[in-house]
Automatic annotation (TrEMBL):
Gene3D superfamilies given in the database record: Medium-chain alcohol dehydrogenases, catalytic domain, NAD(P)-binding Rossmann-like Domain
GO molecular function, one term: oxidoreductase activity
UniProt xrefs under InterPro entries: ADH-like_C (IPR013149), ADH-like_N (IPR013154), ER (IPR020843), GroES-like_sf (IPR011032), NAD(P)-bd_dom_sf (IPR036291), Zinc_ADH-like (IPR052711)
Annotated Enoyl reductase (ER) domain residues: 10-328
Name used for this protein in its record: Alcohol dehydrogenase
Length: 332
């Protein structure tokens, strides 16, 4: 089978396609015929050596995949050959609150950038026929993160999203499905039109209006937004504080933008809740899949690459000028 390994950490050039024997499932394991994978910002941090987690050279990359059960090992009860599945993003975290860091795909254990992979049966969930493999492959990290970032949002709430990456677009879609009003930011008028087409009630071009936090607040009659999906980190946090309502929530998701963090008192005086989002567990993924199926939500896919174009997919994604998810298809 074909498989990509990160033979040297530091650049995309370290990704090498290899030929290896197709593995056989052991007790409690299944063999997945991988049909599609998708990229997340974490994948760039691993390849470039920016990740805050311990890294190991030689690891297979990518944390999100969907495929078909090809074979089952002894003792497997959750799945049968032919089942359509997607993987749990955080191995070992199946339900309940986040309590400990375990091994992660692409860092201390092999990920999914391969034609086949064996995995413990407990790290997979079923996907319905109504969700394609490429759509399902976008869900484990970005969609689950967005799902938890807007948890509790309803028709009475206003949500602020930042940019057009996978998490932000899923947050927009989930918030609109729950009846909330969404204010989105972006850097171009073309992307603004696409955000409105997805359902954004207001769109702010932050390249033209660097004080976008104040403008977002003005769209709420001066009250502020109930939830900020904060993906920028230091570079956007000050504006998020200007936008958030008293007792609102800032869901801290990412660190995409460089800058200086506001001071403690600036944060304290918002009386907001600052909630870091640790992606989510297997139950969250099952809830996301159900919501996507029931609401007819279509993940936004920026671009598709073949398996042989795996490095090109990373190169495109690294430019950070995307609208949605970058997907790798193992079969044309």
């Amino acid at each position: 089978m074909k498989i990509y390994r990160l033979q040297s950490i530091g650049s995309i050039d370290g990704l090498v396609m290899c030929e290896e024997p197709t593995p056989e499932p052991g007790p409690g394991e299944v063999l997945v015929n991988i049909k599609a994978t998708s990229l997340n910002f974490r994948d760039l941090t691993i390849i470039n050596g920016w990740s805050p987690f311990p890294l190991e050279e030689g690891r297979v990359q990518l944390s999100d995949a969907a495929g078909v059960i090809e074979a089952v090992g002894p003792g497997v009860t959750r799945f049968a050959v032919g089942d359509r599945v997607a993987n749990n993003f955080m191995p070992g975290w199946h339900a309940g609150p986040f309590r400990e860091f375990g091994l992660q795909f692409g860092t201390q254990m092999d990920g999914w950038m391969a034609e086949y992979r064996t995995i413990d049966q407990n790290e997979l969930v079923v996907i319905p026929d109504s969700i394609s493999f490429e759509d399902a492959a976008t869900l484990p990290c970005a969609a689950v993160t967005a799902w938890n970032a807007v948890a509790g949002v309803g028709p009475q709430h206003r949500v602020l999203t930042q940019g057009t990456g996978g998490v932000s677009l899923f947050a927009l879609q989930f918030a609109k499905a729950r009846g909330a009003q969404v204010i989105a930011t972006t850097s171009s008028n073309e992307k603004a039109q696409r955000l409105r087409a997805l359902g954004a009630d207001h769109v702010i071009n932050y390249a033209e209006n660097p004080n976008w936090g104040k403008q977002a607040k003005s769209f709420t009659g001066g009250r502020g937004v109930d939830c900020v999906v904060e993906v920028g980190g230091p570079g956007t946090f000050a504006q998020s504080l200007k936008a958030v309502a008293l007792s609102g929530q800032v869901s801290m998701v990412g660190v995409l933008a460089e800058g200086e963090m506001p001071g403690y008192l600036d944060m304290f005086l918002t009386f907001a809740r600052f909630q870091t989002i640790a992606t989510g567990n297997r139950q969250d993924l099952e809830n996301v899949i159900a919501a996507v199926a029931q609401n007819g939500i279509r993940p936004v896919i920026d671009s598709r690459f073949t398996f042989d174009e795996g490095k090109a997919a990373f190169e495109h994604f690294a430019k950070r000028n995307v609208f949605g998810k970058v997907v790798i298809l193992n079969e044309a």
